[in-house]
């Protein structure tokens, strides 16, 4: 068995696609009604489809999961993030963690938590 994808529910699938494409370089592999599979296993699903399929409401900013990325230039990434998305909600600004890595945490436009850190 292997993990194939990670799905996040979003309120505007095109806006989310643009966000992940501009910042992380993802491309669209496949589209279907209310779903979009991006490279590297990220799936965007319209929150109405999620709610219909699961019978549960999407809870924005639930902070129960995090997408984690690595980048050698965390500060440069954070500057680009602010240039492209000036209204970004930061959980923590770029700083060194207890292991000596640079880390930044922020929310995507739907409140999903993202961390970008320097490789170990």
Q: Summary?
A:
It contains three helices and eight strands; from the N terminus they run βαβββαβαβββ. The protein folds into two domains: 49 residues, Roll (2,3-Dihydroxybiphenyl 1,2-Dioxygenase, domain 1); 52 residues, Roll (2,3-Dihydroxybiphenyl 1,2-Dioxygenase, domain 1). The protein is α/β, with parallel strands linked by helices.
Q: Please estimate the helix content.
A: 25-40%
Regarding CATH, which class of the largest domain?
Alpha Beta
Q: pLDDT under 50 segments (min length 5)?
A: none
Overall radius of gyration: 15 Å
Q: What is the H/E order?
A: EHEEEHEHEEE
Overall shape:
globular
Strand content: 35-45%
CATH level-4 homologous superfamily of the largest domain: 2,3-Dihydroxybiphenyl 1,2-Dioxygenase, domain 1
The largest pleated sheet is described as:
4 strands, mixed
Describe the model.
The chain has helices at 13-24, 47-54, 74-84; strands at 6-10, 28-32, 35-38, 42-46, 66-70, 90-96, 102-107, 113-117. With 120 residues, it is of the alpha/beta class. The chain has 2 domains: 6-54, 2,3-Dihydroxybiphenyl 1,2-Dioxygenase, domain 1 (Roll); 66-117, Roll (2,3-Dihydroxybiphenyl 1,2-Dioxygenase, domain 1), CATH 3.10.180.10. The protein has a 4-stranded mixed beta sheet with strand order 1-4-3-2. β7 (102-107) and β8 form a beta hairpin.
